[in-house]
Design a protein that fits this description.
The structure is a single chain. The protein has 77 residues and is an alpha+beta fold. The chain has two helices and four strands; from the N terminus they run βαβαββ. Strands 1-3-4-2 form a four-stranded mixed beta sheet. A hairpin with a 7-residue loop joins β3 and β4. The radius of gyration is 13 Å and the shape is globular. It starts with 14 loop residues before the first strand and ends with a strand.
Length: 77
């Protein structure tokens, strides 16, 4: 089993970034949505726990794909 912090470096785990409040506003404005309309990710997800992300944080997930499209998730309980 991987140590909690080591999970972030695993080859199958995409990069996760906690957005600043300003970055959150920009993303929500770009998509014309509210924070609650974002897809969710649970606070007990191993990656969320390893990052020390908190409920209400918005994560930017950078999957390794041809498009390079970022994904956004709202951390919930």
């Amino acid at each position: 089993m991987l140590e909690p912090k080591h999970i972030l470096g695993h080859m199958l785990v995409p990069e996760h970034i906690i957005l600043s409040k300003e970055e959150e506003k920009e993303v929500l404005a770009r998509f014309g949505i509210t924070k609650i309309q974002l897809p969710k990710i649970k606070a007990n997800d191993p990656v969320v726990k390893a990052m020390d992300a908190k409920e209400g944080d918005v994560l930017k997930i950078l999957r390794k794909s041809e498009e390079g499209t970022p994904y956004y998730r709202l951390v919930i309980k």
